[in-house]
């Protein structure tokens, strides 16, 4: 058993410890608080500080934490903002950093960033919540979170094979905002708004552009719902966008309620980046509303361990406590998270927060994304660094979403080496070959298994 798990079980739940674990107070523990024989909580990297479940200070826990760096940031750049405003998700959304001058008020921009922002028009504008900006380096344009959200000149370079709609979603759109590609499930694009705009977004063609070609409104929702009522083969609806958690509680409740009322729809999912970039959105009112629509699952978008702050710990704890199974999706990005050890830290930090690492995506060939894309071999290398070397739950599936609408294709390092008579030859995580007796399979190898030399 690892040190973290031992500490978690042995912890004495004093009020101070509860505060520490929920990230509400970053002061050192009092002498009364029990310290692990291995290390104190405060000596752990932030992403590995485990969250607490319900405890004696539950009432206090409903207040939202503010990590130390973020507090220093908002006091400096938003000095007239109260803590209540800062923790209000609507204030965060209203106050997003959207223009060159707003960026320049906070960041020391490179010439490349300046000119990229200045020449931008159309969809996928700049948009960064003040909270998420507080996690970025003000001076270093190569800092990972900053690179994913501040424009760079690479966005204007179109490489061969890149498309506006690389997954062919428009082709499979049956009514505006509803993509029906697989027989039993649909993608419901509920909104074009996100709390932050990721520079590598697969739907860059349609987000952040209210007057543009793609329209999202209740009339279109109703048309999509009529389609779903008529298509009894659909049992699973994934709400995405844009980000569905930018929709107000009442409207989202209406949409989930309409979908839940369709008898053949068994399963609802929400895809969202909000818990990592606007964790204050996960209010108790929101989770109480979401709980009414079970079975409801969520896929949360995380990129880097730096995102795993006390605020995110609180947001994921609230969702998990509401009985919402949480999975993660991460896009593999060059120079940002393309490193086995870093990815392991991210996956461990997610597991501790009850988020199951689900998908690791090869970056889609969206127009202007070449500076983010790694060779596919890098993703396989990362999976090799995880599989067998850490908890199986911490290993996501590495997938390529096939250009043109072929769906997700699982990419796995080869484990079947071949066959020797009745034996299948298998490679383990250390690269060693093992035999598995499989006489019934002799002569019936699936395509791709070569005879042993
Ligand atoms: S939050 Fe999702 S939909 Fe919005 S810009 Fe980022 S990747 Fe795209």
Q: What can you see in these coordinates?
A:
Mean pLDDT is 87; it is low at 1-41, 53-62 and 447-453. It contains 17 helices and 13 strands. The chain has helices at 3-10, 15-21, 58-61, 68-77, 83-86, 89-94, 100-106, 111-118, 130-133, 144-149, 218-230, 249-260, 274-277, 284-291, 310-321, 340-352, 376-386, and strands at residues 173-175, 178-182, 185-189, 236-240, 267-272, 296-301, 326-332, 355-362, 397-402, 407-410, 416-420, 423-427, 433-437. α16 packs across α17. The longest helix has 13 residues, at 218-230. The strands form 2 sheets. Strands 1-2-3-4-5-6-7-8-9-10 form a 10-stranded mixed sheet. It has 453 residues and is an alpha/beta fold. Bound molecules: iron/sulfur cluster (SF4). The site of iron/sulfur cluster has 11 residues, from loops.
Which tags fit this structure?
single chain; 453 residues; alpha/beta; TIM Barrel; 3 domains; ten-stranded mixed β-sheet; three-stranded antiparallel β-sheet; globular; disordered N terminus; binds iron/sulfur cluster
How big a fraction of the residues is strand?
15-25%
Q: How much is the radius of gyration in Å?
A: 23 Å
Main β-sheet: number of strands, strand sense, barrel status? Answer: 10 strands, mixed
Strand order, largest beta sheet:
1-2-3-4-5-6-7-8-9-10
Total beta strand runs: 13
List the ions, cofactors and other small molecules found in this model.
Answer: iron/sulfur cluster
Overall average pLDDT: 87
How many individual domains? 3
State the end-to-end CA separation: 41 Å
Structural class: alpha/beta
Query: Tally the helices: what do you get?
Result: 17
Pick out the low-confidence regions. Answer: 1-41, 53-62, 447-453
Estimate percent helicity: 25-40%
What is the H-and-E element order? HHHHHHHHHHEEEHEHEHHEHEHEHEEEEE
CATH homologous superfamily of the largest domain - what is it?
A: Aldolase class I
Q: Given this structure, which CATH class of the largest domain is correct?
A: Alpha Beta
Shape: globular
CATH topology category name of the largest domain: TIM Barrel
What would CATH call the architecture of the largest domain? Alpha-Beta Barrel
């Amino acid at each position: 058993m690892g040190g973290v798990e031992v500490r978690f079980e042995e912890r004495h739940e004093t009020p101070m410890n509860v505060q520490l674990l929920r990230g509400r107070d970053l002061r050192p523990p009092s002498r009364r608080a029990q310290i692990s024989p291995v290390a104190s909580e405060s000596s752990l990297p932030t992403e590995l500080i485990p969250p607490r479940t319900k405890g004696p200070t539950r009432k206090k826990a409903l207040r939202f934490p503010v990590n130390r760096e973020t507090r220093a940031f908002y006091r400096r750049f938003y000095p007239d903002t109260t803590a209540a405003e800062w923790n209000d998700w609507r204030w965060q959304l209203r106050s997003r950093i959207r223009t060159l001058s707003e960026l320049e008020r906070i960041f020391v921009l490179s010439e490349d960033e300046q000119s990229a922002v200045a020449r931008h028009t159309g969809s996928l504008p700049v948009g960064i919540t003040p909270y998420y900006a507080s996690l970025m380096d003000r001076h270093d344009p190569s800092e990972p979170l900053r690179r994913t959200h501040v424009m760079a000149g690479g966005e204007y370079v179109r490489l061969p094979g890149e498309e506006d709609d690389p997954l062919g979603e428009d082709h499979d759109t049956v009514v505006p905002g509803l993509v029906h590609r697989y027989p039993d499930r649909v993608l419901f694009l509920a909104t074009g708004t996100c709390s932050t705009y990721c520079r590598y977004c697969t739907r860059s063609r349609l987000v952040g552009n209210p007057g543009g070609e793609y329209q999202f409104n209740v009339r279109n929702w109703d048309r999509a719902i009529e389609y779903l009522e008529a298509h009894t083969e659909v049992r699973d609806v994934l709400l995405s966008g844009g980000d569905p958690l930018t929709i107000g509680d009442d409207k989202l409740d209406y949409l989930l309620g309409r979908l839940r009322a369709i008898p053949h729809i068994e399963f609802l999912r929400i895809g969202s980046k909000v818990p990592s970039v606007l964790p204050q959105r996960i209010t108790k009112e929101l989770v109480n509303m979401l709980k009414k629509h079970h079975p409801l699952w969520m896929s949360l978008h995380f990129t880097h361990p730096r995102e795993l702050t006390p605020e995110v710990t609180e947001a994921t704890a609230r969702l998990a406590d509401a009985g919402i199974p949480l999975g993660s999706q991460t896009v593999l990005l060059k120079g940002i998270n393309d490193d086995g050890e870093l990815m392991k830290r991210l996956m461990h930090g997610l597991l501790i927060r009850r988020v199951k690492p689900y998908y690791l995506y090869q970056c889609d060939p969206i127009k202007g994304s070449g500076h983010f894309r790694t060779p596919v071999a890098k993703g396989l290398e990362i999976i090799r660094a995880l599989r067998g070397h850490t908890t199986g739950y911490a290993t996501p599936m590495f997938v390529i979403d096939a250009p043109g609408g072929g769906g997700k294709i699982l990419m796995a390092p080869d484990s079947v080496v071949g066959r020797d008579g009745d034996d299948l030859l298998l490679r383990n995580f250390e690269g060693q070959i093992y035999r598995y007796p499989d006489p019934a399979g002799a002569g019936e190898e699936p395509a791709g298994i070569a005879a042993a030399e």
